[in-house]
Amino acid sequence: MNPAPDRLRVAVAAVDLRARNRLASLVEQSGHEVVELEGCPDAVLSDGAEGTVLAVPTVAVGSDEHEFPGLLPADATARQIDAALRAVAAGLTVRAPGLRNRTFGVPTEDLGPLLTPREVEVLQALSDGLSNKAAGRRLGISPHTVKFHIEALFRKLRAGSRAEVVAKGLKRGLFEV
User: Of 75, 110, 113, which is closest to residue 96 (Cα–Cα)?
Assistant: First the structure.
């Protein structure tokens, strides 16, 4: 594996010249080289106003468009931008603390307790309409263990039925259909 380069080649995408110049200045302050989008950049720093998702890993500053792999607040420092650019160039997702996407759009007070990976698997089995016995076969556990996890789901999600557990799990983005 090759080590990360000291300087990244970063393109700037912004709707107006003033925003473009501000972002280019932040790229230079963070120690990276500003290149054109056609110049095969390692990453892009954007104001997020364009609304277009690029094929190059992009950090959007001051945007709440969640299609971008990197989201930073408008007042992000050069150091934060440097870290975010390096992270998205390496294939990671970056979210500054407090940005809505960290909880998939659900307010933190509505998230409730965290579920274990096995509880999420049981929740998925419930959403597929499986009985305890069928869920146990799918997951390689006994029907009694499935029942134990369902009881934990009822308690954690404050639900009174299997259908309500599934509905609350979907609403909170705990699994996909």
Answer: 75
